[in-house]
Request: fold
Amino acid sequence: MREESDKELLDRIAKMLDGGLKTMTEPFPEDNFQFDVIVRELAHIKKDDVEKKLVVSGYLNHPIEEMRCMECMYYLNHRKWCNLPEIDLPAEPDWWCRLWRI
Ligand code: SF4
Reply:
């Protein structure tokens, strides 16, 4: 089977979020320990289980206050991609998740 392009995957994720997928936006990690707990949970999810990765990371299709993917240290702007290895999924620049970091 042909592999899904980045754009197709981005569109699929946008549809899931537009469709009202409830993701875990809380608790927002307050320190490295709490951040690592979420990252470890993500690491156990199968790579192709996109929905579960979105839920656990708390993906949203809009910013939270001043926080957007665009300013996050994991964001690859030219590719519209979240490069946190445990997420490794496309994202629009004005989206957000609870692993946001600068
Ligand atoms: S970690 Fe979250 S906020 Fe940062 S680029 Fe990835 S999806 Fe966006």
